[in-house]
Amino acid sequence: MSVVFITGANGFIARALATRLRARGDTVTGVDLRADEAAGVVAGDIGEEGSWQDAAAGADLVIHTAAVVSNAVGLDEQWRVNVAGTRHALDAAVRGKAGRFLQFSSIRAFSDLGFPDGVSEDHPVRTDGNPYVDTKIAGEQVALQAHAEGRIAVTIVRPGDVYGPGSRPWTVLPVELIRTNRFLLPAGGHGIFSPVYIDDLIDGVLLAAGKPEAAGQIFTLTGGAGVPCREFFGHYYRMLGKRGPVVLPTPLAVAVAGIMGTAIRLVSGPTEVNATSMLYFTRTGTYSIQKARRLLGYQPRVDLTEGMARTGRWLRDQGLVPA
């Protein structure tokens, strides 16, 4: 039995982690912007030092999921949370005498500008001017520096495109946009998506956190296969009883997304409908999970058909798609 402290504890991935950890007998606490006393979550802003750091005292493992995950938030705020926040979480883990710090990064550390098909963890990361990409890379550097200095053992995971019950970026938001006819794909829908079902991701994270040989390592965790974007998002269209996806040539899709995003911002504020999101859907490469298979014994078990069947049941239960 271990004590685990999770940053961003009210988030989608963090809640799934906490459920699994408690099921195996671990004690789970954490921090988020809003407290949840029943779940052992204290209120705190990881972008600032504060009393929330004291709540990590006595934890065996600190899992750092908190981040700004957006293509619609500027560099200053993303740096404050994704980079400075990582340092603050590391400081809390070190002061609390945790044995391991597991940092959530992203496959986007390889950049949105292109990378070899089947890219592996030894391929250089690449900044590209996107605040999310650049701050996730900088956050990795902060964590790896702490490991190199011997302050704490660090493991970094780079999740793929995480979908499933509760996922806002790749389940709830696309369904909302498709339902309101505001979703489209560039590159004729032929860009490659790299999905990982939430249960498989949690399997990989717990393996990475628990194996001594994972200290100092970076692991890519996806479902093991890339699929065309039109195939992945086509599942949501069928759940909604719509024909699609709507696909356009990339220049036209980027232009339409810019116009549509401006209109949405004027009415309801920041939106993920923008040129950066469109370009993300033009990726042509996939991500290798051979290192995670070899060193962790990671084996994704939920393929896209089964994952979408489970996701569809949840969406129907939530009233987000027709029964």
From TrEMBL:
Transmembrane segments: none annotated. Gene3D superfamilies: NAD(P)-binding Rossmann-like Domain. GO terms for molecular function: aldehyde dehydrogenase (NAD+) activity. GO terms for cellular component: cytoplasm. Residues 4-216 form the NAD-dependent epimerase/dehydratase domain. PANTHER family: NAD(P)-BINDING DOMAIN-CONTAINING PROTEIN-RELATED, PROTEIN YEEZ. This is Nucleoside-diphosphate-sugar epimerase. It comes from Actinoplanes lobatus.
